[in-house]
């Protein structure tokens, strides 16, 4: 019997942290999406891709699944006779990769010409072998090494200007049959994929792969949806998982989010130096929609991709019956916007768009510290848009605590025409102060837009000295008023017109603490 379900043993945080989220934009189309391997790719919650062979917390678990599948179905493993040298090449290449990426647990030692000692401490294996001598290994080399890596492996032979899938161990195929495809050409294998012929994706990939050189590994990702955390969704056992595509439509939303998974393959393409064969590694990662939704940018993007995916691609991927619901599920999982507590300004979480109906534009970037770079970038991007819509002026200032900078701002506002859109990027003190000065100069709310790069400071109006000053602090905290020296509490109460928060004398205990800090 095949293992039909392989729940992850790794904790969600680990799965999410190493997940190769595959969508660079809100729309997915086939492309010859290859890139050099080995470059770590940062994600909002972690990183992936620094090692070609990836070992994670599910290592043993997935290897057990593979062993069980191979024991049940020998067609998942095939080596055509001319591929035997390539299997040794693949095995030794992978051992080298493992020992380089995991030197604590994986060791490859040369014992002399063609003789090696291999140690895999994770599995407690020590094996001496003579390269090319089958009698020195307990199993056929490809099978031996796929017992120690989570990747599926296919080996392609290159002859008559074509690539042929002539060997492999593939136990975790996503809706295809390795046993059926063995011996086929690269172009034949991709025959069922819609669109790619017209787009030239596969012919370009074929040309690229034929030219691939040793020591220049490449990688790409591919994706689909899988119901439950099943690694093995091969054609061979379709009766075990195919019906889920129907039944998943009737489950409630909670179950739907737990069971539908985004399945991503990281595929490595490596020219083997000795045999000249091409090694194709397929490593499969899965996150349930529920897990995916814990990373907001992933939730939002996956929802868009699924909703927009053309029907022929969704049909080919076998997800047409439930992808709309998956998109809807992800959209519904959007976090409810949390309104700021009453009395606090509601700053946008991303830079607002330029209102291009403006007659002209005044863009302000204010700041001197690290956040000034961000303010500068945002202002530049506003300027790029605004210059196409009308006369645009960019003012870069250090701080509105500086009389010169205040003067420059007032001067620019005095020169601004009616209908000028004013966009401000900077820290909270500078943004609130600039907006208040703009209002005082006659600007209305619809003409103002702002992005706050940090909220470490704010303008504080002191109820005792009636002065407004910049302070480092947040509502609820007690600070010393720079105007009169009284310890004042910053209230969660602000005036957009005045451009300040209210401060008033703090309780004595808090005042004492503020005095000590000051
Ligand atoms: C740059 C290299 C490659 C590109 C651009 C590429 C592209 C694709 C694309 C776009 C699909 C459709 C996937 C989907 O919609 O889910 C696909 C499917 C597939 N690819 Fe590749 N591929 C590449 C390399 C390979 C290699 C080296 C193999 C060798 C085994 C392979 C085997 C397959 C198989 C078996 C399928 C499923 C076909 C079916 O439905 O029967 N691919 N490939």
From TrEMBL:
Residues 460-503 form the Dimethylamine monooxygenase subunit DmmA-like C-terminal domain. InterPro entries: DmmA-like_C, HODM_asu-like. This is DUF3445 domain-containing protein. It holds the Pfam family DmmA-like_C.
């Amino acid at each position: 019997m095949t293992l039909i379900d392989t729940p992850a043993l790794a904790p969600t945080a680990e799965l999410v942290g190493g997940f190769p989220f595959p969508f660079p934009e809100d729309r997915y189309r086939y492309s010859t999406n290859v890139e050099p391997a080995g470059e770590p790719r940062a994600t909002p919650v972690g990183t992936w891709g620094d090692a070609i062979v990836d070992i994670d917390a599910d290592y043993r678990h997935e290897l057990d699944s593979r062993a069980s599948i191979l024991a049940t179905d020998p067609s998942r493993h095939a080596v055509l006779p001319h591929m035997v040298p390539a299997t040794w090449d693949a095995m030794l290449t992978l051992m080298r990769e493992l020992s380089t990426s995991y030197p604590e647990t994986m060791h490859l030692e040369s014992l002399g010409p063609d003789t090696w000692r291999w140690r895999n401490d994770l599995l407690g294996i020590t094996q001496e072998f003579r390269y090319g001598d089958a009698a020195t290994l307990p199993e056929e080399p490809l099978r031996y090494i796929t017992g120690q890596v989570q990747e599926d492996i296919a080996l392609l032979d290159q002859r008559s200007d074509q690539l042929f899938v002539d060997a492999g161990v593939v136990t975790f195929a996503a809706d295809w049959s390795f046993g059926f495809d063995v011996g086929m050409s690269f172009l034949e294998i991709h025959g069922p994929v819609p669109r790619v012929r017209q787009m030239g994706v596969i012919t370009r990939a074929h040309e690229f792969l034929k030219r691939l050189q040793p020591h220049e590994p490449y990688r790409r990702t591919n994706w689909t949806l899988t119901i439950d955390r099943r690694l093995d969704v091969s054609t061979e056992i379709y009766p075990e998982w195919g019906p889920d595509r129907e039944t998943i439509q009737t489950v409630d939303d909670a179950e739907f989010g737990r069971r539908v998974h985004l399945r991503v393959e990281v595929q490595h393409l490596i020219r083997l130096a000795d045999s000249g064969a091409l090694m194709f590694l397929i490593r499969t990662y899965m996150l349930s929609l529920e897990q995916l939704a814990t990373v907001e940018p992933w939730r939002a993007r996956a929802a868009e991709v699924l909703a927009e995916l053309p029907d022929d691609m969704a049909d080919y991927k076998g997800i047409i019956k439930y992808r709309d619901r998956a998109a809807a599920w992800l959209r519904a999982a959007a976090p409810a916007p949390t309104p700021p507590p009453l009395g606090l300004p509601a700053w946008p979480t991303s830079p607002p768009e330029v209102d291009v109906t403006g007659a002209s534009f005044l863009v302000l970037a204010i700041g001197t510290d690290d956040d000034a770079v961000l303010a500068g970038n945002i202002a530049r991007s506003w300027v790029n848009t605004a210059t196409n819509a009308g006369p645009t002026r960019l003012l870069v200032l250090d701080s509105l605590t500086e009389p010169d900078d205040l003067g420059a701002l007032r001067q620019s506002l005095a020169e601004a025409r009616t209908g000028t859109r004013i966009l401000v990027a900077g820290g909270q003190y500078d943004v609130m102060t600039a907006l208040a000065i703009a209002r005082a100069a006659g600007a209305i709310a619809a003409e103002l837009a702002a992005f706050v790069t940090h909220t470490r400071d704010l303008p504080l109006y002191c109820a005792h000295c009636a002065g407004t000053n910049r302070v480092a602090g947040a509502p609820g905290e007690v600070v010393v008023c720079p105007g009169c020296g009284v310890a004042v509490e910053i209230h969660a109460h602000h005036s957009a017109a005045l451009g300040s928060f209210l401060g008033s004398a703090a309780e004595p205990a808090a005042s004492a603490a503020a005095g000590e800090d000051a």
